[in-house]
From TrEMBL:
Its cofactor is FMN. Residues 11-163 form the Flavin reductase like domain. This is Flavin reductase. Keywords: Flavoprotein. PANTHER family: FLAVOREDOXIN (PTHR43567:SF1), FLAVOREDOXIN-RELATED-RELATED (PTHR43567). One of its GO terms (molecular function) is oxidoreductase activity, acting on the CH-NH group of donors, NAD or NADP as acceptor. It comes from Sphingomonas oleivorans. Belongs to the flavoredoxin family.
Length: 183
């Protein structure tokens, strides 16, 4: 085995797919690309997200306490990277990247029509924001386009390369302790 610097742990433990986060402040919607997030618990459904003051969306999330986590698929890979390479303070990302905002039910932040799924969230806890830029969000509604042809998500490898979801290993029959999660 070869040793890697401990600072590269994120490259091995990337928790989930790259997502897009939408916010809306004073009627102005924005989108950011986010790779650092994690599920915290099932019920209530809590999601931890790293969004720092270097992100234009940070002030909107702090001010409004709500956002949408949109889950793009591999056909949007280049758009997802390009969204992360510009700032919402200088450009309307919905217009620039030809994405369609759709109204959410419970939050002002828009859903993204072109994404596989959208999760409406409210900030549940900000106690770790000042020290770690860690927002704890509670998922309130989930919208999914089950008929979407492309459903593979992409995962950042920490160096500008990505992996795409592929084969599914179905081990549900072995998950005897967690059957209540199989809905």
């Amino acid at each position: 085995m070869n040793e890697l610097p401990a600072s590269q742990a994120y490259r091995l433990l990337e928790p989930g797919p790259i997502v897009l986060v939408t916010t809306s402040q004073n009627g102005k919607p924005n989108i950011m690309t986010m790779g650092f997030h994690m599920m915290i618990q099932h019920a209530p459904p809590l999601i931890g997200c790293i969004i720092g003051p270097w992100d234009h969306s940070y002030s909107a999330l702090r001010a409004t306490g709500e956002c949408v986590i949109a889950i793009p698929t591999v056909d949007l890979a280049e758009v997802v990277v390009d969204i992360g390479n510009c700032s919402g303070d200088a450009v309307n990302k919905f217009d620039r990247f030809d994405l369609t905002p759709q109204p959410a039910s419970d939050v002002a932040a828009p859903l993204i029509k072109e994404c596989l799924a959208n999760i409406e969230c409210r900030v549940a806890d900000t106690s770790l924001v000042d020290e770690y830029n860690l927002f704890i969000l509670e998922a309130e509604r989930i919208w999914i386009d089950a008929g979407r042809k492309e459903q593979r998500t992409m995962h950042h490898r920490g160096d500008g390369s990505f992996t795409a979801d592929g084969d599914v290993l179905d081990l549900r029959e072995r998950m005897v302790k967690w059957r209540h999660l199989q809905r």
